[in-house]
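Hi support team,

I submitted a single chain yesterday and got back a structure, but I'm not sure I'm reading the token output correctly. Could someone confirm the output below corresponds to the sequence I sent? I've pasted both exactly as they appear in my results page.

Thanks,
R.
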Amino acid sequence: MKLVVMIPAYNEEKTVGSVVREIPDQISGVESTEILVVNDGSTDETVRAAKRAGAHKILSHKTNLGLGVSFRDGIKCALGMGADLIVNIDADGQFNPKDILPLVEPILKGEADFVTATRFLKKDVHLRMPWIKKIGNSVFTRIVSRLTNQELTDTQCGFRAYSKEAALRLNIFGDFTYTQEVFLDLINKGLRVKEIPVRVKERKGQSKVVKHWYTYGLNALIIIIRTFRDYKPLTFFGTIGLVTLLPGVAIGLFMVFHWFIYRRTSPYTSLLYVVVTLVVLGILFIVLALIADMVGRQRKIEEELLYYDKLRRYTNVDRKREIQEKNY
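Hi R., thanks for writing in. Yes, this is the structure output for that exact sequence:
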């Protein structure tokens, strides 16, 4: 069992070294541990600090591409390193690397496919967070919980552990962030999630991701909507269709009854245009929902094919590497 600890980093020269050094060397059930730092176009000494601290591999972007891109590239790289288990931890030092042990335990025991840290389950922990961020965290957690039918408490925390199966199944598209999209993707594929409470250190300086709460909220909401659209197209477009169609039908019935009683449509004649518009739009969205559902089924087939392609590509990576080195 090989563990790869993945650390996305952008201008974290002051903290990334301590995070790397504090990662446990020995974990029960894990034969070897390697550290992967994903440098997302840092302009400071992040790479040098990570190397000095003992990071085994540095994956660097020439420019800052976003946390979502760094996470996707990191997962691919970790699988290429032969990971059976992947832990993602922030480079800012907010999380204690020693908490990796309880985070991976449910996966090693076969109780979960991916495990996420939560900052809000410990009753004795008073997390210092601006009120606007607490509200935003609560709102997004409620949205994701509702969409996945899970009782979640923290969907914005990036400190997580993934089994190889979860990493192979994972397909996300957001460049800005990934935290909410991962829940929607993996839970919709039937993978099991578990939350583990952790303590959090107060962050020094401004977050590299949440620079402005309104831009983060908007970008995260767009990612959630797109993901929900992709996995529940019939519900997504069908709901819009019904919300549009039913008022049109109701107004239309009202006008029909009015005509039978008074033998005229006035003074509601202008509502005819509203009825026609709502009914036509509603029917179009319902037809679109059926087409999108058909496309969604095709997507599931394609994702299954992609999973088997990844499985073939990343199986026995270490053995293939040994053969290549021997032949060389």
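A quick pointer for reading it: The chain has a mean pLDDT of 88. Let us know if anything else looks off.

Best,
Support desk
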